[in-house]
């Protein structure tokens, strides 16, 4: 397929601030909030520390969002982090990130969320031992198809499921804060941990907040991105912190800390105590909607890096075509789905496909997130006189805190994960020939000619 010619379709401003905030919230508010509170409770020593660790996770997320706001406002582009890394370190590092995102980070996240959706659907409509994997594969195909049809269709679906998802989570919050237990059997309390492990608790809290950085991939299609991206990231993060804090207060008020520690499904146990069996149905539907929301939003943003990477690598030119009718990188979305399906097949042979995908992606994700944080310092130093549409507050302390957090999470994701993490690092290593190819092609940013910003048509020196 031919490379895109001059004047070919490009990303344009089709997303409003509301659209982008909705997509961001839909990316983050997923199945994690229905799984991780019991793990967090098992690693804290008191009810106050349980709530504080969620607030602290929200503050860390806000710090990261503010750093991304400066980078995204200064360099709006459909390639998001790929674009930041290319400007800061040159195309070879960006190429390696693109490879990691295409084969590990984003596709692994898609496969993991699809497995979670498949697990719940398989409970309602069992299909045998591989039922979850079959439903996961079908979900990837269906939602990729919707997004290939057009950005408008993918956006409309996202707005609908996110609003339903928030309404369901709000119901859980209201029942928990204002309902009264019916006196039924509570979850069997687990023994309090001999030593608390706030670091482990924070790992799962930040996993639950994960996905906010995907907003960077919307700047190529966000109206007036330099001015609006900071609003998107700040508003989205504040909504997330509010929802998660209230949800955990609701869980704590009904189950207590010991009840949370002994629960396998915290939201279902809480709703059963305040609303009976009907409450369990509400939670099950909420989890399915949450998984649909996260999966669709992850597919929506993920293929943008395929498009950006293909601009710089001749062997991927067929993915450098922006579908003018659908207003999306349709070829990139198809390639993304193919890789995600391969990972689903790999996860199907493990004991827990969702956990395997979390382990597979975590070290590579946090390693590159650390590089993005450092990129903020590199780009400020490289262009000291450049006017920035948005500046991160309390520089340099804010990005330093973000980088320290990423460093710790990188360590923890290697120390506390299984064999799948090594598989993710091995796949990353398999992408190193891309670096050699790029250097031989003379595409390093240090020697490249001024580059045109694909998303906005502005010339910036690399």
TrEMBL record:
Pfam families: AA_permease_2. Signal peptide: none annotated. The chain crosses the membrane at residues 12-36, 48-71, 92-118, 130-150, 157-178, 190-212, 232-255, 281-307, 328-348, 360-380, 392-411, 417-437. It is found in: Membrane. GO terms for molecular function: L-amino acid transmembrane transporter activity. Keywords: Membrane, Transmembrane, Transmembrane helix. It comes from the Bacteria. GO terms for cellular component: membrane. It is a multi-pass membrane protein. PANTHER family: AMINO ACID TRANSPORTER (PTHR11785), SOBREMESA, ISOFORM B (PTHR11785:SF512). This is Amino acid permease.
